[in-house]
Design goal:
The chain has 434 residues and is α/β, with parallel strands linked by helices. The chain is 25% helix and 29% strand. It is built from eleven helices and 24 strands. Strand 2, helix 2 and strand 3 form a beta-alpha-beta unit. Helix 6 packs antiparallel against helix 7. The longest helix has 18 residues. The chain is elongated, with a radius of gyration of 29 Å. The chain starts with 11 loop residues before the first strand and ends with a strand. 32% of the residues are buried.
Length: 434
């Protein structure tokens, strides 16, 4: 439902309608015709901790006053001060709920409904019927919501998850909408209505979040029949990135945009010299940079971490010559027993055997007691590369059940096919450090 009040006259308009018919779209159309958006009030009760429509409207109309559940008293007190007040009620609320919100204030009722929606409670209630989208509806529909504040989702995983939602993987979905923070810092609005042509994800006009986990709303709402809510919840959780992976993505994005601590690419210049780096910059189009930003730079699954560089940064190369104490530090930062890295382009298996680390600290005043840290078996695995050496590509096979690693080389020149390769480097069983 929507309510509009002009000046001190309580000319209130309440809008209701079926799921996906276009209630929020109608509200936005009315708001665009009002010059003083700072005098607009919008309220949509019943959304709980998943205020998707409120967030979208607040983003499109930055000066608007938006109210959610728990702010009913403040909203009611602001009505006389506004030039236009919009209240939208979802299909899941009873039409009688508006009386409790408005405390017997008069209003004009408008229903947004599909053309084939006939003889409903909305028709007898509304003063005006607005033709809405041809959304499919059912009396057996259920509503499922989940807030995901602070979570970041890989955009490719989001596209797959959204495809599954809209193609029956979790039940017969007639309506779905959500706001998600993705790996390059953007906030995306996703919208689906059964029976209506699908639209691309919409980037909300919000600052990119590139420092840790986003401190803003994100969440999902799904309407349909026979929804597999447990699987929906689990799949959404599986799409969310770990702290280590978020850090990797954000570092890459900052570097690509020249905003990170290594924005001038000193390591790249030192290795390939300035002319080569300049040529690379001129040859890589903006479109290609956008594609690079969508790639996956890290995964944490079970006790395995796969990243491009190391847990310190995207530019660090771990090799068979890296000192054991440095390897152990990189492993212990993320509590990973198996660290897979590809920056060096080498295939290697660097094993840290069971042992201990003894640390001591001596100051000018005294010597502190030594601390002993037990080291469990861990390993760093170089995953190889494709394309660095002409005519061959190296691959790594890992079996999490047996913890076995095997390297394969594919030759695509004169000698073609697979060839196995094993290379392991084991550290000493006991490491001392002071």
């Amino acid at each position: 439902m929507i309510i509009i009040i002009f000046m001190s006259i309580p000319n209130i308009i309440v809008v209701a309608g079926s799921s996906g018919a276009g209630k929020t779209t109608w509200v936005c159309q009315q708001m665009r015709e009002i010059a003083a958006v700072d005098k607009i009030i919008y309220f949509s009760p019943g959304t709980g901790t998943v205020p998707i429509d409120q967030t979208r409207i607040a983003t499109e109309f930055p000066g608007i006053q938006v109210f959610s559940d728990g702010q009913e008293v403040e909203f009611f007190n602001q009505i006389p001060k506004a030039e236009a007040v919009y209240i939208e009620l979802g299909f899941y609320l009873q039409l009688e709920a508006i009386a409790q919100i408005l405390d017997n204030l008069t209003y004009r009722a408008i229903a947004v409904l599909p053309l084939d929606f006939k003889d409903s409670e909305y028709h007898s209630w509304a003063n005006e019927i607005v033709r809405g989208a041809p959304a499919q509806t059912s009396t057996a529909e259920t509503l499922w919501r989940a807030a995901s504040n602070g979570q970041v989702i890989d955009e490719n995983s989001l596209e797959e998850f959204w495809y599954e939602i809209t193609h029956g993987a979790y039940g017969i979905v007639t309506r779905a909408k959500g706001i998600f923070d993705v790996n390059d810092g953007r906030s995306l609005y996703c919208d689906f209505v059964a029976g209506v042509p699908q639209t691309d994800f919409l980037e909300l006009d919000l600052p990119r979040y590139l420092e840790g986990r986003p401190q803003r709303f994100s969440g999902l709402e799904v309407v349909g029949e026979n929804l597999d809510e447990a699987t929906l919840k689990q799949t959404l959780s599986d799409c969310c990135l770990s702290d280590a992976t978020i850090l990797q993505y954000q570092q890459q994005c900052l570097i690509l945009h020249g905003l990170g601590p290594t924005g001038d690419a000193p390591e790249l210049i030192a290795k390939y010299e300035g002319d080569t780096v300049k040529m690379l910059w001129e040859c890589v189009s903006r479109k290609t940079v956008q594609w690079l930003r969508s790639l996956d730079f890290g995964f944490f699954e079970l006790d395995c971490l796969l990243i491009h560089g190391s847990t310190v940064g995207v530019g660090e190369e771990l090799t068979p010559e890296t000192p054991p104490i440095q390897m152990l530090d990189r492993l212990s930062r993320m509590q990973a027993n198996n660290l897979f890295c590809g920056r060096s382009g080498l295939t290697f298996q660097y094993q840290m055997q069971t042992g201990s680390i003894t640390t001591e600290l001596t100051t000018l005043d005294n010597q502190m007691f030594p601390q002993i840290v037990t080291v469990s078996p861990r390993q760093v695995i170089g995953v190889g590369n494709v394309g660095r050496t002409a005519g061959q590509a190296t691959y790594t096979f890992y079996n999490p059940g047996t913890n076995q690693v095997e390297f394969k080389t594919v030759y695509y020149g004169n000698s073609k096919g697979f060839q196995s390769k094993h290379k392991s480097i084991k550290s000493k069983s006991r490491i001392f450090h002071s």
